[in-house]
Amino acid sequence: MTKTTETTGYNERLEQKLATIFAGGHPKYHEKMKESNKLFVRDRLKLLFDDENYVEDGRFANVEAGDLPADGVVTAIGKVNGQTVCVMANDSTVKAGSWGFRTVEKIIRIQETAEKMQVPMLYLVDSAGARITDQLDMFPNRRGAGRIFHNQVRMSGMVPQVCLLFGPSAAGGAYIPAFCDIVIMVEGNASMYLGSPRMAEKVIGEKVTLEEMGGARMHCTVSGVGDVLVATEEEAISEARRYLQNFPANFAMKPEKIEAKAAKAGRTLEAIIPENQNAPFDMYELIDQLVDEGSFFDIKKLFAAELITGIARIEGQVVGILANQPKVKGGVLFGDSADKGAKFINLCDAFSIPLLFLADVPGFMIGTKVERAGIIRHGAKFIAAMSSATVPKISVIVRKAYGAGLYAMAGPAFEPDVCIALPTAQIAVMGPEAAVNAVYSNKIEAIEDPKERIKYVQEKHREYKEEIDIYKLASELIIDEIVAPHQLRGVLAQRLSFYESKELPLPYRKHAITPV
Amino acid sequence: MKELKASMAGTVLNVLVAEGDTVTPGQAVVMLESMKMEIPVEAEVGGVVEKVHVEIGGFVNEEETLVTIAE
User: Fold this and answer.
1) Does A237 lie in the same domain as A279?
2) Tell me, what CATH number does A30's domain have?
3) B39 at the A interface (CB within 8 A)?
4) Domain enclosing residue A66, as ranges
5) Do B38 and A279 lie within an 8 Å CB cutoff?
6) Whole-number Å distance between alpha carbons of A311 and A356
7) How many domains does chain A have?
8) Among candidate residues A275, A237, A234, A251, the one with its CA nearest the CA of residue A398
9) Within an 8 Å CB–CB cutoff, is residue A461 touching chain B?
């Protein structure tokens, strides 16, 4: 009788190997993970995917080494919200998630798969960086670590790329998050830095903690390298899933419409917007009245909060919102807010997410500090991104839109599909107070009687306000429509649906020289 | 001890607390005027106002200390 594999132990050998791979690194490292509220890589994947229906490549990488299961990275294809995605996930129980030759090769291969399949690529990062002992094998060569970043750049805007940062992302590895569309960071555990605090002390003499230099909160509030700050790994994964709901699988597809929901119950826009142009109010309250309840996904909430950027749904239709926040720094635009706006516009434009601009902006900041920091080139970056976006662009002038603030918020010259004004809208080179001062300052100073002086200034304010009256601008076809605030949500839903078929050819050239 | 700093350059429009007052997190402590806008500066922590460093009408630069709060 012929012997079959059924009786010769082939499967036992396979199962033994698989068992060691699934176990990950030494139990003491699993203990350490638990102590810092971190999940084992395979548990992270279970939470991320819709179900158990996923496949893994290169599972046996470095299996002969014995102590390097999967070579410290799991690469898999599975489903998120019913959509196929590719994932690479570091296993920090294996040599602290460091990268050897096979680790890098596996990451490159799953990226290539994502590109071939044209599906989103997710990076679950928790890695100490390069295995210095293996550097010639994994660092400089054609398929060394640099290739991972080269692939990320190539795939940028082609498929969504999402980074979930659970632990360190050190040195060169810190470029994985930097090249992603969005970075979700777990407070207390996630960090990014080019040189560790220990290295900083040795090389430049600085004494600093990891949290101060590269912690999650710092990056999500100060540097802007992080986008979403979360408390737990579970939250990071659910936020990534929520984020991806708004995106198509790739640039050639369109985001799906979902079931509409009513806006959150609250005050009307009329009750929210103060009449005094200079008084602060909370733009989040206004956004709540425009979007489907619970749909707003805030991006960079804690960074440059004077500009709000987030993706939401209006009557089930996806929309990327940029809104000035008068409650923070008067809604004035700074270098950081310009960076934030530019990246957000690029993100939405790449994946066919229409843009809604809610303008209440006194302009870009002035003064020595910001000029030295290059506010002009930062502003140019924002305006260039807005200007070159070809998705539907809806500009709503909520209150004031002064100077280059009007430009940045998709003013009429930048081909918005519509520029809508609320009755409170005020469009001008500058506000009445500043304009009257600029034009009449000599005359004002020459009036000696204080009462007469105030009277004169008030008269000039009145004249100026008449000149920029919103009905005059509508009459001149500068703006396209004036809408009662409580009707704005309905109007936006209508317009989004009409603009769905918008197609704009790109200018014939290689690419623009983008201001940075 | 927490130093409350100016979020942006501007003029002090109003100081809304006096030394010895108790403040709660999120309470507007100083009102700045900048770019013709009213900019409320809110306490990040609760505590007692130990020192007010600015006067109404004075210019402050970004990151300049406005008020010290003892937690």
Assistant:
1) no
2) 3.90.226.10
3) yes
4) 16-244
5) yes
6) 10
7) 2
8) A275
9) no
Residue A67 lies in a domain: yes
The answer to whether A328 contacts chain B (CB < 8 Å) is yes
B71 in contact with A at a CB cutoff of 8 Å?
A: no
Handedness of CA B38, A329, A275, A478 (dihedral sign): positive
Q: Quick check: helix, strand or coil at residue A510?
A: coil
Residue A64 forms part of a structural domain = yes
Are residues A200 and A337 part of one domain? no
Count of H helices and E strands in chain A? 21, 16
Cα separation, A50 vs A259, in Å, equals 20
A473 located within any domain: no
A289 and A233 within one domain: no
B34 to chain A: which residues are within 8 Å by CB?
329-330, 332
Nearest residue, CB atoms, B37 vs list A332, A334, A367? A332
pLDDT in tens, B12-44: 999 999 999 999 999 999 999 999 999 999 999
Global confidence as pTM: 0.95
- The C-alpha angle B60, B64, B67, rounded to 5 degrees, equals 100
- Please, which pLDDT band fits residue A84 given cuts at 50, 70 and 90? very high
Give A115's Cβ-side CA count (13 Å radius). Answer: 15
SS3 B60: strand
- Report how far apart, in Å, the C-alpha atoms of A304 and of each of A102, A262, A332, A337 are: 40, 29, 10, 5
The secondary element (H helix, E strand) that includes residue A16 is helix A10-23
A290 and A231 part of one domain: no
Length reported for chain B: 71
Mean pLDDT of chain A: 96
Query: Are A322 and A186 part of one and the same domain?
Result: no
Which ipTM value was assigned to this complex? 0.90
The residue among B13, B35, B38, B59 with the most chain A CBs within 10 A of its CB, best to mutate, is B35
Q: Are A108 and A151 in contact (CB under 8 A)?
A: yes
Q: Which of A211, A244, A277 is the last residue of a domain?
A: A244
Domains in chain B with CATH codes: 2-70 (2.40.50.100)
CB-based contact, B56 to chain A, within 8 Å = no
